[in-house]
Amino acid sequence: MIVNNYVAMRAVAMRAADPLSPQMVLTLHAALTEGTLDDPADAGRLQRIDDHRVSVTTHDGMVVHTPPPAAELERRMEELCRFANATNTGAPAGNAHPYIPPIVRSIITHFMIGYDHPFADGNGRTARAVFYWSMLHHGYGLAEFLSISKILREAPGKYGDSYQHTEDDEGDLTYFILHQLRTILRALDDLDAYISRRRAETAALRAGLERAAEQFNARQTQLLEWIDREDVLELSARLVANRYRVTTQTARNDLGLLESLGLLRRGTTRRPITWTVASDYSARLTVLARPATEKGREQG
């Protein structure tokens, strides 16, 4: 499922400038649900009249939402796409609709896919993918890096309640919109915190690299900086040799040195031999870069 989400998000980012179409929604659903459905034929298709129509139930089986009939799904999907593609000035060409802020339009688009429940399964995942498309389409580029699903998984009851309150109050979307806005704000806070942590870690690592210059030659220092800068996860002697224009044996010696210091882990395959970056790479490098007197005090 993680791979499916990644593939779908890449597709969303690549097609953010395109208008939403029923076929795009079906393609996203197929990507998100590949290998996860009871019937693989359900991937990328709307429910049909002769299908058992899905409904939204509680854990104990009580039906809390009955979606529209399958016969209406194709028309409703086309109408939803027209709504999602409306311009920021408030209306598709030839129609007079009130102005809707782009972020609210994205949230409503999310809601409607969940409300219509057009697929046998994977409706929530598809709704969130289309929400990300809408945000990117309307210029909210940072949305690509927001982890909305993580927050919804932590409090699924509140997410479900926002749907239920909307339906109980004659379709008043205020409940769902406010819930999603709060979720977006929290996701932004989480992103800010992550960026701050990464900045602090990078600053500490760069300082460590400067102090560690005496332990490594220039090429090895460049290799360490590359691993940090580009989040390199796996290395081979050939890759390093080509990058730094040295012999394969020299590259193997460099990688062996980093392995001996605990910065890399040798893989199990023999041909080609590969090394993976240690999960505690930054912490180990920081310790290596400390003055010997400071290390001695810690060990004592």
Automatic annotation (TrEMBL):
ATP-binding recorded as keyword: yes
Active site: 117
Gene3D superfamilies xrefs: Fido-like domain (1.10.3290.10)
Superkingdom as given in the UniProt entry: Eukaryota
Molecular function terms, GO-annotated: ATP binding; DNA-binding transcription factor activity
Pfam family, one: HTH_DeoR
InterPro entries linked: DeoR_HTH (IPR001034), Fido (IPR003812), Fido-like_dom_sf (IPR036597), Fido_containing (IPR040198), WH_DNA-bd_sf (IPR036390)
Residues annotated to bind ATP: 56-65, 121-128
Stored PROSITE patterns: FIDO (PS51459)
Transmembrane stretches, start-end: none
Residue intervals of the Fido domain: 20-179
Keywords: ATP-binding, Nucleotide-binding, Transcription, Transcription regulation
Name under which the protein is recorded: Fido domain-containing protein
Organism: Caenorhabditis remanei (Caenorhabditis vulgaris)
